[in-house]
Design a protein that fits this description.
Largest sheet: 5 strands, antiparallel
Radius of gyration: 23 Å
Oligomer: single chain
Strand content: 35-45%
Distance between the termini: 45 Å
Structural class: mainly beta
Amino acid sequence: MASPSPPAWADLLPEVLGEIVACLCDADVARLRAVCRAWHSTVACELQDQEQEEMPWIVIPNGSFCTIGDTGVFFNRIPGLPRNVTCLGATDSWLALDCTDDVFRRTNIVDLKCLEPRSDVKHEHNYLLHNPFYEKTVSLPELDSIAGHVNETFEIRKVLMRSASPNDLVAVTTNNDNCTIILCRPGKGRWVLPYLGVFDVAFFKDKLYGITRHEDLVAFDLADDDDGSPIIPKFKRVIRHPLADGEEDPWSWMDDDNDTDDGGGDHSFNPDDGQLVPSDHEVGVDEEVPYEPKDCIRTKLLMVRRQVQSPPFHPSYTRKVELFKADIDAGRWVSVTGRDALPEGEALFLSRSFSKSTRVYGDMTEGCIYFVDVDQVFDTRSSSCRPFRLPWQRIRADDNWLTWLFPPKLVV
């Protein structure tokens, strides 16, 4: 007698399907809903009883990721991620990816303890923007033309999109003087600014702002040429760091509006030449980290300073955090504390390559700063740290290369 056939997947009881949905990330939930009308309806009902927004992910360069919060778990790979890529960073729901055979981009840090990147060894690179929630990938040939064949010491430090559209302006910072800031518009063109000492950037209102390791703030005007290619017609230093008696200021020429009509977007250069610009100190036992990633928060531009303690044989922890807002009219950084630090109902997420202010939901707490590298959050209201558990698998990579990724709001 023939054995009975197994029940059809489409006949799963709604409560069983609900249990499955609770174990999936957003990208898999979207696929589940697309199977049939019955599943779409059941999943929609289930989501109405759950949080409509998922807590942010911590993405590891090899494509694995952790969810956070009380139900945080580890996943071996982001669904739909292209093969043979390394995650350089993220901007909201988009990942910046590097396709290369460079071992320092393709291998976890635990496997590279005895190796150092070499300036005399070059690799080919192709760069992508990838949205794992909508399975959309956009190539960046404009960035390939600049950093497509570089040595192992070359690093892209941050990739930032001005809006949710991948066809809009993309800003890139590197650790090389010859291409400090790169602006790209996919399919249109690119613009390169060298020799400015800027290591981090943020879009704020109608400008791009960059900060130097001395905490100078530079404002860049943004425009397009007749072909739609991005250009920076002028820039100016709007905040200058205090100088010691007798100290010379090598950047004083930036205090006035500087025209860039010298063809800065078209000049040729070798990105392997020039002095590297430091972006972050290695954190020692009592060493201060004088500059952390910055974030623009709707009504103000913030700078975050953090000191990290790294005692031998013990986990690192945050020792001190300071917040400053940019007073561009006065030309100075102003300390902010308590409820003046972050807008009401919002929290701040930081890594070296990512910064985002968002309204709180799920396990978030308003007024807190979430760092990707320590099991603590900093409460700006009380100026103190409190524990916050992060999945241990994030230690598979150097803290400098971890990034946050925000899933989009689920629409039912």
